[in-house]
Amino acid sequence: MTTPVIGVLALQGDVREHLIALASADAVARPVRRPEELAEVDGLVIPGGESTTISKLAALFGMTEPLRERIAAGLPVYGTCAGLIMLADKILDPRSGQETFGGIDMIVRRNAFGRQNESFEAGVTVTGIEGPVEGVFIRAPWVESVGADVEVLAEHGGHIVAVRQGRVLATSFHPELTGDHRIHALFVDMVRAAR
Question: Is the pTM of this model over 0.70?
Fold first, then answer.
């Protein structure tokens, strides 16, 4: 089986860290900024960063509709932090004009765990991964509620912080910042299975 090609949406955020994590999980990783680059990947990571900025830049680069179409057509996607927000069907407190790509039947709350100076690390038990994953929570969102087809993979402090719906995976935290690439490996396996 050929190695899957997985893109990282390279508009804003911690792109480099995801490229490294994907490469260590046996994928060919490449940055994606334009629709023609999106057309060449088997899966996509939407990194953490600032969700309102990602929303604006996606529109500016002509990526919003192509991303929505590919996700709806079954492209495996993994979003971390701001990426989780971008994969939500609804945001409780969106900034003016903020749009999402959708893909997961969930409602999210931006910056739910607090401001930048309230960022923290915590061990998170994730369904399908043995042992706790070190989660880095930076102005992290949480999932307020999910639809019937969404699998809750992890909670922290009574709040949902990792979910999966079909081929779409999302975490409130940043595993790419810890050197523990097990969630990326899980996503690479999802991409392989989808092919």
Answer: yes
